[in-house]
Amino acid sequence: MNVATKITPVAKAGHNSVGHTVCPHDCPSACALDVDLTADGKIGRVRGASDNTYTAGVICAKVARYTERLYHPGRLMVPQRRKGAKGAGNWQEVSWEAALDEIADAFVKAEAKHGSEAVWPYFYAGTMGQVQRDSIERLRHAKKYSGFMGTICTNMAWTGYVMGTGALRGPDPREMAKSDCVVIWGTNAVATQVNVMTHAVKARKERGAKIVVIDIYDNPTMKQADVKLVLRPGTDAALACAVMHIAFRDGHADRAYMEKYADDAAGLEAHLKSRTPEWASAITGLSIEGIEAFAALVGTTKKTFFRLGYGFSRQRNGTASMHAALSVATVLGSWQYEGGGAFHNNGEIFKLDKSELMGTAYMDPDIRQLDQSQVGRVLTGDAEALRHRGPVTAMLIQNTNPMNIAPEQRLVREGFLRDDLFVAVHEQFMTDTAKVADIVLPATMFVEHDDLYRAGGQQHILLGPKLVEPPETVRTNLFVIEELAKRLGVDHFAGFGLDERTHIDHILEASGWGSYEDLKANKWIDAQPDFEMAHYINGFGYADGKFRFSPDWVGGPSPDRTPDSVGPLGPHADLPRFPDFVPVIETADADHPFRLATSPSRSFLNSSFAETKSSVQKEGRPEVMIEPSDAERLQIVDGDIVSIGNRRGEIRLHAKLVPGAKPGVLIAEGLWPNDAHLDGEGINVLTGADPVAPFGGAAVHDNKVWLRKDFSPDTTREMA
């Protein structure tokens, strides 16, 4: 366990101090933070905790500016009820009591008319705090409301990784600093998880390590690379197969390692005979020479650390692509070495027992499970999305903004504007989703409540204690769940009636991690397994200890496995026996000659921080990045207004000519609010919600589109 200073109590007027907490946002890093607390009970400067060995004193710029968000003049401060038409922007202030009464009454009426499944509690990772995020599940299970399949983020990446390893864990990510080659694949770490760069750059400075970046355009992480591989979207598996082909061909494959630790190396080698660099070059757009050089680098560098990101979760073939990239480390035997192997997420190591918090004892397996990513289809009455049962007519939404982030936005908007749908949104700002709600409740921010965190991208369990008092009229997520439970008659169920610290205490004790007071005294727990377990030296996570080159895509393990009542999804029969490129992506065609990726920006985090002035100033405006040769062919110049579209719809935004992607590839960075766009519709008008094989997911970077210069009369109008 790391040595750490003691927790500082809640700020009180009359003195200055430093508080210690955790960044709550949807990011694998879960950075440990030191927060200056001022004499008047407010927060000041926010910085990374230098005594946390993963955060290492470094945080992203947007979190460093958190005072701007906490004290933003546009922050929601009082409960509000809609006046007039949905989305018209007319509100009246109501009391907390009246607002909660109205929500409970709407839920009771929905249940009376259509059954308990008519109510759909909807949430995600706007906070990664275990208590404030997951308590909504306890209310769901107690009331038998519709279940929630969280599919917007992890499904393809987690499934692909675990299908190979049998477990969601890997080498200590701090070992990147001990590597001789760090391969950052499928993540723009500079923008989305800056601590990856901290450890990779340390390896370069101290060991002369090479940093390789594999992505679809010349993003900020690519600019830090020694070796840059810019490939076509969704073609990662072709590169991985060619690298393994070369490893077998040139004698870099560790046959002794595979004999002991893998299922069918001979079958894999035979399969890869035709997966040559020439074959991969035609698919990926990479040069044959570039593929050969990369394969030689990792093949001759034993201590190669493959840092595999969430970009794999954004393509329709992402599960197979993650598995293929992961398999490279096994063919090379990289797992054997400190500073080697492949890492994606450490979710399995924490083993937090949240059964009481989430009310799993009274979960009913017969209750339908609805897909988060298909919220538009659910709310517009799609029979398959509704599991061939009744409509959803009431929702409570916490920690997410589906009117902005969900695919198929025109369906989403149509659904949320239904007159017979009641929506309550508990939020910090008037988001796109809050704007179409019936009741809006103001929510606390992370320094204003207690919570418990775990870091998927690293190895710490961390305490996020309350550091400052919230505004008097703002309430926690837990408060809302508790008050609704009382009004709905389930507050006597186990798990209700407990405060945040008690929940944290119970989770830690049930999980064998001590108590709340223990964690309070130490700030965090370093839960990293020993080298043998982290590197699978004692065998991979399957019963026979073998890595699976040939996984059972439907019957194999996955943290995101769909319930039996739903079954496997998408074209799972097309998934390959061995690692391979699977052409189930939206391939460009004559009518849609471009591929569009909706990549994350540096100053926003999903739809968070899009309200802060400094983030907006740094990002500028919604734009689409176009490769200059494509722009010249279409007579588009920098700053032109262009239209992009497909069968789902079309939007207009400004062109930004940027070299560094493949011709035919468009990039739209950041989730801007819908009204920041020229016509009030955001980029997710163009993304699809069809489920990805084998267990669902939203392929938001996988879109075929057309592009044209816009010549409509109002093309000179700037964004609002």
Can you tell me about this structure?
By secondary structure, the chain is α/β, with parallel strands linked by helices. The protein contains 23 helices and 25 strands. The strands form 6 sheets. A 6-stranded mixed β-sheet has the order 5-4-16-15-14-6, covered by helices on one side. It has a 6-stranded mixed β-sheet with strand order 21-23-22-25-20-24. Strands 10-9-8-11-12 form a 5-stranded parallel β-sheet. The N and C termini lie far apart (50 Å).
pLDDT < 50 runs, ≥5 residues:
1-11, 715-720
Strand order of the largest sheet: 5-4-16-15-14-6
DSSP summary, beta strand count: 25
Derived structural class: alpha/beta
Percent of residues in helical segments?
25-40%
At the fold tier of CATH, the topology name of the largest domain is Rossmann fold
Tally the helices: what do you get? 23
Number of domains: 3
Distance between the termini: 50 Å
Estimate what percentage of residues fall within beta strands: 15-25%
Note the main sheet: 6 strands, mixed
Shape: globular
CATH architecture of the largest domain: 3-Layer(aba) Sandwich
Instruction: Give the rounded overall mean pLDDT.
Output: 95
Give the CATH class of the largest domain.
Answer: Alpha Beta
Spatial extent as radius of gyration: 25 Å
